[in-house]
Amino acid sequence: MFGLIISLLIVGLIAGAIARLLVPGKQNISIPMTIVLGIVGSFVGGFLGYLIFHKDGQDGFLQPAGIVGSIIGAVIVLLLWIKFGNKSRS
Hints:
The structure is a single chain. The chain is an all-alpha fold. The chain has one domain (about 1-85). The chain contains three helices and no strands. The radius of gyration is 13 Å and the shape is globular. It is found in: Cell membrane. It is a multi-pass membrane protein. One of its GO terms (cellular component) is plasma membrane. Belongs to the UPF0410 family. It holds the Pfam family Transgly_assoc.
């Protein structure tokens, strides 16, 4: 259980950081928010992957396709955050 939590945090940090690198412009979010962005992006990417391919991740936790899906999901969540989430700071 502890290993799963650590894996989620590491994959979340990597996916969130790559998403922040891919999206142009400055995002004013902290490292913990980057981790949350990656974790939420993992769920979004997994959900979209299930909707498109009708398969889930029964072959293991860390799969290359899952990490790519996490990054794509994190980019989607970050774009939505930039579009709708920063209204109070503008």
